[in-house]
Amino acid sequence: MKTFKAFWIVLLFTIPLPLIAQVSWKEPESIDTKESKVSTASGQAVVVTANPLASDAAIKTLEDGGSAMDAIISAQTVLAVVEPQSSGLGGGSFLLYWDQAKKSLYAFDGRETASAQVEEDMWITSEGKAVPWIHATRSLSSIGVPGTAALLWEGHQQFGRLPWESNFEKSIHLAKEGFIPSPRFLRSISLAKKLGIKHSQPFKDLYLPNDSLPAQNIPFRNQKLGATLNLLAKGGINEFYRGDIANEIIIDLKLGQNSNKEVQTITHRDLESYKIQKRHPICSKYRSWKICSVPPPSGGGVAVLQALGIYERLSDKYWSKDTPNRWHLIAESLRFADADRSHWIGDPIDWPVPLEGLLEDEYIEDRANAIRINSKTFSPLPGEPKGSELLDLASQPRTAGGGTTHLVVVDIYGNVASYTSSVETVFGSRHLSGGMVLNNQLTDFSFLSTISGKPIANRIKPNKRPMSSMSPVIVFRNGRPVMAIGSPGGWLIPHYITNALIGALDLGLSPKEVVSQDLLSVQPNYTVLEKSGNWSKVDANIHKRLTSLGHQIKYTDFSSGLALIKWHEGNWHGAADPRREGKAVSLHVQKKT
User: Fold this and answer.
1) What are residue 436's DSSP bridge partners?
2) Burial of 246 (0-12, 13-18, 19+ CB in 10 A)
3) Each residue's pLDDT tens digit, 286-321
């Protein structure tokens, strides 16, 4: 039976989903073409988010004397209102935070957790078939215990300067008084309808009244979310996990269970037990920089550090920045890092992740030496890092997802925040409670717990956090932060960030140029170039050269949403990815003490 199950899970993740449903899981977020103007800003304090209203709220917080953490709270709560398709209080987050006063870097893990009631084969039917991914996203069983509210609270306790409640003023106002819907907001509602919303009457009532999109020129209001935000602002974190907000979540979930008694979902005890994890950041040297990100259960940071390490060693031998060889080296570096990510990464409460071995210089050197400069490697196998000797695991096919946002902040005190947040699919599960979008993050687990008798590191287990691709990054040089970056994009997040870091650090591109450059991604057996990019204009030989090396080339539009800030000549400079609706804003003020 296990072999039969394995067949179906591989089928689910390898057949293009349009054969199963009308939309693809690969790049589910709405994007704009790169013809739009890139938003940039420079100053002593800079904010970049995926929405102008969130950026404006965050910069106002900094103007009022708030820290980067206060700005994160202001921005995230506004994004919950104006960009609910990507993040919100019903989702999870990762935060990388540089405390300038203490000269210390912190990693906060606010990833969702599985309920204590989950079962390993919850996504396998009684016939031994994998539940189609698109159906799983609609299930109450896909909802993990939200972690974003807890992360914001803990971050504020440690780094906040303004009163907790003051960071909610703008979001509460926008939820109650309304905002003019953006084009991406409306496109995302249409996409959610294609993904399936029949299971959620509250979603239809709020976002598709009378089966029509909200009016483009009339303020959109979410009164229930305004009330939820007000409760959280006044009552603090206990309100969310033990108070009225928690009660409403459980009542709404139980109402959904009435129609399907077999569905398992989170309980009061799950909410009460939730805690963020303060983890040790992971860092690696890249040329003269130190690159830092978040550790497992995110595999994104590991993938970025591995890909950069492999690429550095290859480019030292074969460097030629003006030829397609660079893109071959990037593609192969990403492919080998992906093989390790699929195999070794999971929540360390279940299986010990051989983290030190995966990032060890000798191991990275071995991975680089396995890459052929004159030909592409098809489906590279995972390596054997130190610490993995007693682990006999199976590799997981890559996951879906993409309902994610990223923001970066540097404040007037020198604190730097790189923060990625998600509800998983567009509008998460499309289930709502208290006006909040509830995540479908448990579909980030492997749908199979074992393949051919071997366990998968990212298998489903009670109280476990699913592997993530979120990769907030802060770059250091000579002991001080010089860059912060991140992106949404599901499995492809580390690909986008690796592209961007090479552009910024090796090629010396400005933030504007970094977020605008053409993107490359990989699958195990083919290489993907950005369809709306300028590949043919930049170098007509790129396609021909990569093909000659064995790359099967495909073109697609990418749903990146890069947000970055970079230190240069006495100021911070920020830029927002033109593929979304982001905005960079800044302050020019005297540094406060």
Assistant:
1) 433
2) buried
3) 999 999 999 999 999 999 999 999 999 999 888 655
